[in-house]
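job 3f2a | input accepted
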Amino acid sequence: MAAVDTVSGVPTLLILKDHDDPVIDLYVRKKVEYAESLGARAVVKKLPVEEMAGEIERANGNTEIRGMIVQLPLLDRGATDELVAKIAPEKDVDGLAGGRPTATAAAVDRWVRERLTESELAGRRIAVVGRGRLVGAPLAKLWREQGLDVDVFTSKDAARLPEELPKYDLIVMATGVPGVLKAEMVSPGTLVVDAGTATDSGEVKGDVADEVRALPGVTVTPKVGGIGPMTVRVLFERLLEAV
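job 3f2a | predicted structure (243 res):
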């Protein structure tokens, strides 16, 4: 296996993936572009899951590589825990090994706090829809540790969402089901974070239906990009902070 292409003195992010996918490729492309805008580098390597452990171990010893990401989901999802655990803690910019909130969870937290004061956030009833390892689970954990009122819904609760979600005034969607959040599920004044992405007829879409964005008094993350740009920013802040 060829060595990772790095440039001496330039902070490098290594992105490992095992397959091509429209959503994955979109996020990878954004990371590469953002790295270039900062004068850093993002190197993408596509290789079979069984070769990733060795690649991670080599990258752990490469001082030019300050951060590593295993781009999820892998085709073999059962390999995720073993692989992310091999990333040196100081290079785990995504936070998947559990030492800190994931970059996406941290990005959601930051986006919300840019719009709500501490007291406003503390007074909100929060619904997190989805319990994935990138967003739902770490975000709920982060906010509960901060003493916030958080309820988590999963796919098993789908039939209850039209009745339950209008009770909340901060909703974070992270299911990967296009347009699953409908207008009747959202009350006036609600802050909505769309952190879900999937493809529908070849188009990348979020969890929030367009009709929600037309509701008066409802604030939603941007339709194009969603929480993605903030996530990329968090990743590269961590990269540049890494020793």
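job 3f2a | The chain has a mean pLDDT of 93.
job 3f2a | closed
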